[in-house]
Design brief:
The chain is α/β, with parallel strands linked by helices. Helix content is 41%, strand content 18%. It is globular and about 95 Å long. The structure holds adenosine-5'-diphosphate and magnesium ion. Residues 268, 270-271, 274, 297, 299-305, 426, 450 line the site of adenosine-5'-diphosphate (ADP).
């Protein structure tokens, strides 16, 4: 809620004034009382921990050191003038040095006394030193020296205005002592009590002056939860609004297409996970509100089939359905899968990509416009203006992370009212991240692979094992299987990568000679037609080995391929390694993934490789990826300001995110207008928050 007190400019805080207020705004973005109170300490110094000089190591953290203060003297002249002193503890010495305010500092130094100094330890010449330490008499500090002292981030400029950590602490304390300070709490009591969290006021105080690690944790959790909760509340309203605003298609009837497909065409039973997700989709599409659903499922979990069944539901209700894929190869493959299922039902599947031109394109567009074509698969060619549907009832987006929000929106704009939307991703996103990134979507997870698949065995090898690897590959080929050999492709060193690939290709050709062995090669420099042709040869089983860059990452489906060798595997990210591995293990035979690396690996690379060897579970891998890279990097949103929380941490606060999401959904469900008295304060706070993020007016 907009509170007068919290919104008061810092210029009005005693001892700050306009000049320092401007510096605080410029340096740290702190403008109001509320801002400064939310400038939480970055760490706490335990005043009871006092080190001996012999324990010291140079480092960025401030520490307390005890010793005898001796040898105070001014040295140098002009700008090199400085004050030095020695802290002595038996044979150990620490040099103390000041460059500014020499005379004033010198006056206050209790030379010859036992002191405790506080500051950062630097390596200096052959020893250690501390610049501008704070110095206290050991005798006089004993009583006061208990508890945790907050350390605030500051800047050099602010430091020169007495607003270093200690100066900021004093200003924060002044706010905490202000009798007129804002003590309101907008969090509904029920929410707070359920977690035994402190009131807001108390939580903020605890953040600055924790009494114990436990009370600090509770305060931090409560305030981190607030950040997540406001976001999740916004998402909950977005979901509500999208549903309401886009009502129109109620696909209530399961008609003959879906029934016939299920009973006569489907060659295998659905997995339980597939059944569950199909049920979720049917419920959405039959509800009268527009569906907005994300389906996550590991590679090979059978998402395409689920999408197809949703598409049949649209057709059964007299509508068209479209599936958009990020690459031409993938679109073609989807078209083929869908055709195999649709043909027995007497349904046609159209394929629209950039390379469909001339009269073929004209006919396709005509059939689409008059409704004689029910199912369309394509690349982003689908969202171009000339593509007009008669009545698009469902839009499916595959590999959703490769498309932008704008592209999704253009697909939705293909019909009025907008079609149901189903987005699919095989790049598992950790649940907490998905809830924050795609919080506006309902979420389904296919967490089960079709039966009969043998888990892929993953091995880590180095060049020393090359001969053994080659003979293993020859054995697999002799059994009738096929092999992928993948080389990295990193944009900055495209030339080098190309050379690696071609060197690799040549040595493979030497070691796997014709005519016994046929080797394909596919890379980004080839013309699309040539790529297609090579891939098709491999898919038909005419070649034994496919040497390629990561262009094969998406979409190639060759069930007969049983070995994936990844060269320079240390140069790949986890999700990419997992995607590549997913190219094998699609048939009934045992499949293998061999990660070739050099013998020297960074810590991160070791973690990536070990994770791949340990598990096939895409969600577990995604979690490790999140830990290694952090949410911003993982989702490519580092620059965009998404998910920049002050306290909440998507890596560690999974349970808080879940709880925030559930709590938000419940409140929106039970009291969508936030009219109940216990929600009055929340309503005010949220309207403030939402105003910054979207038009609250449309909700209220
Ligand atoms: P995804 O897109 O999730 O990576 P696909 O939809 O391409 O996976 O499915 C992978 C393979 O598994 C396809 O050949 C598909 O026909 C097959 N498949 C899908 N569902 C099942 C099932 N329930 N039982 C057996 N095979 C299935
Ligand atoms: Mg797929």
């Amino acid at each position: 809620m907009s509170s007068r007190w919290l919104d008061t400019s810092l210029a009005y805080l005693k001892g700050i004034g306009p000049l320092r207020a401007e510096a605080l705004a410029g340096e740290l973005g702190l403008r109001t009382f509320g801002d400064l109170l939310a400038h939480y300490p970055y760490r706490y110094l335990d005043r009871s921990v006092v080190l001996r000089i012999s324990d010291l190591q140079p480092g960025p953290a401030e520490v307390q050191v005890r010793g005898l203060l001796t040898g105070v003297q001014t040295v140098g002249t002009g700008p090199k003038r400085r004050l030095t002193a020695q802290l002595v503890d038996g044979p150990d010495e620490l040099e103390l040095v000041w460059f500014k305010g020499l005379r004033w500092v010198e006056k206050g130094l209790p030379a010859g006394e036992e002191v405790v100094v506080f500051g950062r330890v630097n390596a200096f010449k052959n020893g250690l030193n501390m610049a501008h330490p704070e110095v206290e008499r050991a005798a006089s500090r004993q009583a006061a020296a208990s508890g945790l002292t907050p350390m605030y981030s500051s800047t050099e400029k602010l430091g020169s205005m007495q607003l270093h950590s200690r100066g900021l602490a004093a200003k924060v304390d002044a706010l905490l002592e202000d009798p007129s300070r804002d003590r309101s709490d907008w969090m509904p009591e029920g929410l707070r009590d359920a977690q035994k969290w402190p009131r807001r006021d108390e939580a903020v105080r605890t953040m600055h002056h924790p009494e114990s690690p436990q009370s600090l944790a509770a305060a931090r959790n409560r305030l981190a939860f607030e950040e997540l909760f406001l976001d999740q509340l916004l998402f909950a309203y977005q979901r509500l609004q999208q549903g309401r605003g886009r009502a129109g298609h109620r696909f209530a009837s399961v008609g003959s297409y879906l029934n016939r497909f299920y009973e006569e065409v489907l060659p295998f039973p659905l997995t339980e996970a597939q059944k569950r997700v199909v049920r979720e989709i049917r419920r959405d599409m039959g509800s009268g509100a527009a569906m907005n659903r994300l389906v996550q499922g590991d590679v090979g979990s059978g998402k395409t089939l689920v999408a197809f069944m949703a598409m049949l539901l649209a057709v059964d209700n007299g509508f068209q359905a479209a599936l958009m894929a990020p690459t031409e190869i993938l679109a073609q493959q989807h078209a083929r899968s869908l055709e195999a299922w649709a043909e027995p039902l007497g349904l046609r599947v159209g394929l629209l990509t950039g390379s469909v031109k001339g009269s073929a394109r004209k006919h396709l567009l005509a059939d689409l416009a008059d409704g004689s074509l029910h199912l369309l698969v394509g690349t982003h060619a689908l969202i171009e203006d000339p593509v007009v549907f008669r009545n698009l009832g469902l839009a499916v987006v595959d590999e959703q992370h490769r498309f932008g929000v704008a592209q999704r929106a253009r697909l939705l704009a293909k019909n009025r009212p907008a079609p149901h939307m189903l987005v699919m991703t095989a790049t598992p996103i950790p649940r907490t991240l998905a809830m924050s990134m795609y919080g506006d979507l309902e979420q389904s997870v296919i967490d089960e692979l079709p039966p009969g698949r043998k888990p892929i065995q993953t091995l880590h090898r180095t060049d020393a094992n090359r001969l053994a690897l080659w003979s293993f590959l020859k054995k697999e080929i002799a059994l009738g299987r096929q092999v992928y050999l993948v080389y990295p492709l990193i944009e900055e060193s495209e030339k080098l990568d190309y050379k690696d690939l071609m060197d690799g290709y040549e040595s493979v050709c030497r070691d796997f000679p014709q005519p016994e062995y046929q080797v394909s090669v596919v890379h980004g420099r080839m013309r699309p037609e040539d790529k297609e042709w090579e891939m098709a040869r491999f898919a038909r089983g005419e070649t034994h080995l496919m040497v390629a860059t990561t262009v094969i990452e998406v979409g190639v489906n060759v069930p007969n391929a049983s070995v994936m060798v990844i060269e320079n595997a240390e140069r790949f990210g986890l999700s990419q390694l997992h995607q590549l591995r997913g190219r094998v293990g699609r048939g009934a035979e045992q499949s293998y993934c061999v990660l070739m690396t050099s013998s020297k690996l960074s810590d991160d690379a070791v973690t990536r490789i070990e994770t791949m060897v340990r598990t096939n579970d895409g969600f577990e891998i995604a979690d490790v990826d999140l830990q290694l890279r952090g949410p911003g990097d993982l989702m490519g949103t580092r620059q965009s300001g998404v998910m920049e929380y002050k306290l909440a941490n998507l890596v560690h606060d999974g349970p808080l995110v879940e709880w925030a999401r559930r709590a938000a959904a419940r409140i929106v469900d039970e009291d969508p207008q936030l009219e109940r008295p216990e929600h009055a304060a929340l309503r005010a706070r949220f309207s403030d928050y939402a105003r910054g993020r979207m038009a609250w007016g449309r909700i209220a």
